[in-house]
Amino acid sequence: MTDRKILMIGTAAAIGILAGGALYLTMRPGGDPFAQCSSSAVAGGMGAFGTDFTLTRDDGQRVTDAQVFDKPTLLYFGYTFCPDVCPLDAARNADAEALLVEDGKDVQTVFITVDPRRDTPEILADYTALFSDRMIGLTGTDEEIAAVNRGWRNYYKAHDEEDQEYYLVDHMTNTYLVMPGGQTVEFFSRETPSEQIAETVACYVDASA
């Protein structure tokens, strides 16, 4: 046998071992069933995002994270007085949700306010209804909202030093995919189109089945 044939056989064997090892790592107990779906890389991994919480839903009911995240959820942090970014992002997320529901996927969207002073449950209910019947609005005390934002590493700051009524709030604009049980597995920037979000979420939903 020539050196070239030996090299080719060895290379093929190595590729087979690597492929088999990757499959084993994915399918073995404790492996990552979502490895083929992930497109985001963050320091510390997506497992570092999220926290337990109790907040007030837009119907006035107090709910826990376990009650909220009972199905795959697109989670966004914003506020109803936001003049431009939040409505566009909420509409984009609702579009992604509609595509997934049309494809038979049981998913929802959640909008957590970063402006609890103005965003009462009633205001959130009216706001979320503009985008989707499946969108849930959540608010709480200043301390509760601060804690949940820390859990998802979401920066926000109200510019209300001079005007306590008509002020803007700086905030991050990522959308997170949270699976049932509260596991955050993916995030999307505001540049991600609804079709791409729907495709990625569908991958996670199928992988979890």
Automatic annotation (TrEMBL):
<feature type="binding site">
    <location>
        <position position="82"/>
    </location>
    <ligand>
        <name>Cu cation</name>
    </ligand>
</feature>
<keyword id="KW-0479">Metal-binding</keyword>
<keyword id="KW-0472">Membrane</keyword>
<keyword id="KW-0812">Transmembrane</keyword>
<dbReference type="Pfam" id="PF02630">
    <property type="entry name" value="SCO1-SenC"/>
</dbReference>
<comment type="similarity">
    <text>Belongs to the SCO1/2 family.</text>
</comment>
<feature type="disulfide bond" description="Redox-active">
    <location>
        <begin position="82"/>
        <end position="86"/>
    </location>
</feature>
<keyword id="KW-1015">Disulfide bond</keyword>
<keyword id="KW-0186">Copper</keyword>
<feature type="transmembrane region" description="Helical">
    <location>
        <begin position="6"/>
        <end position="25"/>
    </location>
</feature>
<keyword id="KW-1133">Transmembrane helix</keyword>
<dbReference type="InterPro" id="IPR036249">
    <property type="entry name" value="Thioredoxin-like_sf"/>
</dbReference>
<feature type="binding site">
    <location>
        <position position="86"/>
    </location>
    <ligand>
        <name>Cu cation</name>
    </ligand>
</feature>
<feature type="binding site">
    <location>
        <position position="171"/>
    </location>
    <ligand>
        <name>Cu cation</name>
    </ligand>
</feature>
<dbReference type="InterPro" id="IPR003782">
    <property type="entry name" value="SCO1/SenC"/>
</dbReference>
<dbReference type="GO" id="GO:0046872">
    <property type="term" value="F:metal ion binding"/>
</dbReference>
<protein>
    <submittedName>
        <fullName>SCO family protein</fullName>
    </submittedName>
</protein>
